[in-house]
Design goal:
The protein is an alpha+beta fold and about 300 residues long. Helices cover about 30% and strands about 25% of the residues. The strands form 3 sheets. It has a 5-stranded mixed beta sheet with strand order 2-5-6-4-3. It has a 4-stranded mixed beta sheet with strand order 1-12-13-11, with helices on one face. It has a 4-stranded mixed beta sheet with strand order 7-8-10-9, with helices on one face.
């Protein structure tokens, strides 16, 4: 079965982005903190701190060669970070593929920057841990498309069973969580992928058709139509006319994550923005949205099978 054709994006719509597909660093975990309020004296240049290192007395780690990289003792840890100076008025914290990066005003001394790091240490270590876990998942071997292989389905796993048969067919046993696919002996891997993808898309369409009316009723609103999406940058979208598109790959995830996206898109029927009023609307029909939102954000493409 072929992939569903994707229509061009509608400029009159709001979309729920898949953060992890975007190369833009604005999608990376970040936070700002006000810089200290003192300002350097008029007519003087801000004092440039020399590169400093803060290695553990017992550490044998080599010194950092780059002037932009620094080390700091935070509790029992040695935290490495990159520092960039700028004209901004706040201290910005960003977690990306290279770890922690700080952007600070040129006039803020190192001691106050590192004091800000200690204040944010819980957030920093949480985000660094999440980043390491995602990197580790990327190193896991890819799924092998064969009899006995498993793939994610509704937050759990289903097992593929392949039967050699001339007649085409596919059936799911909910009790054993097995998906049996009938294929002729000469069938290749792509035929298996197409058959499984077609079944998953049909399941997604069936489930979305059940969940959308449920949350629309809670909201007291109605949508015009819905369709599946195969987008690589959006979980869903909603136009001003009430046309909703939901990514079929949501079928891999647990029901609360699916319901969050459904509630999110339906809430745009009331608020075509992401203002506090919008999030209050989401919460009114799906109170657990914060936990589901975090779970969805932490579910990277490396967790999904490649079709």
């Amino acid at each position: 079965m072929k992939l569903l054709r994707q229509t061009p994006p509608d400029p009159q719509q709001l979309a729920l982005q898949l953060d992890f597909f975007s190369p833009d660093t604005s999608s990376q975990p970040s936070v700002d903190q006000p810089a200290p309020k003192h300002i350097p004296p008029r007519g003087t240049m801000p004092r440039q701190e020399p590169p400093e290192l803060f290695p553990s007395p017992t550490s044998s780690a080599p010194p950092l060669a780059s002037a932009g990289r620094r080390r700091l003792h935070v509790g029992d840890h040695i935290l490495e970070y990159r520092l960039q100076r700028s004209k901004r008025r706040t201290i910005g914290f960003l977690i990306d593929e290279d770890g922690l990066r700080l952007t600070a005003p040129r006039w803020v001394p190192i001691a106050e920057i590192e004091s800000a790091i200690r204040e944010k240490q819980r957030w920093i270590f949480t985000k660094l841990s999440e980043r390491r876990e995602r990197s580790a998942r990327r190193l896991q071997p890819q799924m092998q498309w064969c009899d006995g292989a498993t793939l994610p389905y509704l937050g759990g796993e289903l097992t593929l069973r392949i039967l050699n048969a001339q007649a085409a067919g596919i059936a799911y046993d909910a009790a054993t969580r097995e998906l049996t696919v009938c294929l002729p002996p000469e069938a290749g891997e792509q035929q298996l992928k197409d058959r499984v993808q077609g079944w998953l898309q049909a399941e997604a369409k069936r489930l979305f058709a059940e969940r959308l009316p449920l949350y629309a009723e809670k909201l007291g609103a109605s949508y015009q139509s819905f369709a599946l999406s195969s987008a690589t940058t959006q979980w869903g979208s909603c136009t001003a006319e009430g046309k909703i598109r939901l990514n079929w790959r949501l079928i891999h995830f647990a029901l609360p994550m699916i319901d969050y996206v459904v509630a999110h898109e339906l809430s745009h029927l009331r608020e075509m923005n992401h203002s506090p009023r919008f999030w209050a609307t989401v919460q009114s029909i799906f109170p657990e949205f914060e936990a589901a939102k975090r779970a969805l954000r932490n579910s990277g493409p490396e967790t999904l099978p490649i079709f």
